[in-house]
Every structure is written in C-alpha cells, then in structure tokens.
Amino acid sequence: MKTKQELLIGKASIKGTMLQAHLLWAQRRLGDVERLKKHVGPECAKHLDAGTLSTAWVPFRCLVGIDQAIATAAGGSPERVFRSLGEHSARMNLSGVYKSFVSAEPHRFFTQMGLLHRQFQDFGESRYSETGVASGRITQSGYPEYSPVYCAGAIGYFEGALQMMHAPGRITVRETACQCAGARECSFELSW
Asked: Other C-beta atoms within 10 Å of 116: how many?
C-alpha cells in the first residue's frame, strides 16, 4: 500500500459518543486531558471539556486531531494508541445504549453495524459481506474526509467488537484497501 495521506476539510462529523470514549481512555491512561489542548486548535480544544454530549455532532477533523494529541501524550507507537482508542470505543459504546445490537453471531452484528452507520457519522456508507464461515469484509465508501488515524481506530473497533462477542478462534482484522492510499474505498478483512 502506498503512503497514506489524510483529507480533513470540515464536511464530516461524528457523534460525541465516539469522542467521549476516546477521552475516557485518555483520562484513564494520562490523567487530566486538559494538557491535550496545547496540541489542538481552538475549534477542537472546546471538545476536550466535559460538555460534549454523546448525541452532539463533532467535526471529524476534531476527532482525528484529538486522537493525534492523545497519541503524542501517551508516547510509544501512535498506531497502537489509535487501535486501542477504537477498541475502547467498541467496548464502551457496545456495552451501553447499543448493547442490544451486539450479537453472539459476528455476521449478524456486522450486517447490523452497516445499518447503524448513520447513527455515528453523517458521511459515507458501510457494507458488510460474509467471505466464509468465520470471516467477512467491511467496505467503507463515500468518505469526503479520511485519515489513517481513523482507519487504525476502525481496526481496533472491529477487534474490540469481536472480542465482546467472544468470537471463537484467533481474531484478525487487517485493512486491505484504503482511501488514504488512493483507493476508492476502505476495505477491512475480518476473521475469527
């Protein structure tokens, strides 16, 4: 895959519940999230305060910028931090108000996830297809904005969701195509 780029132009938003999950992870690992403000601009710094509701729309670029600030503060591998943020988001959001969508059957869950896509972001589309008894493909397309930060978080989210379902076997999630690298869509291969 060629070098990944990001495009953040202010046309996309995510639900506050995604950001809340990432900030909770940061608070537990780093302590006070106030120190992240120096790494983000004023538009995004306001979302570091406790006032962002789970139902509020947050600019996608702020999620990416705050995740980058979290990775900087956490140190180590940024990719690992982004994946951990995604995994934590799955655990937090899928054990809360959306827990009724968690199924013991991964194929069913990921099919439903495609239907819930618009509950969490106001852009793009997510489709799921079975590729085997214990494998599938998630394809995300039509994203006017994208970032490798978000793609790494998606891998962690899918891994976290499979762990919550107690998927049998070894859980593997890998990205095989990415808009950040010039592809028309992002594709993730899952197996368990």
From this structure: 11
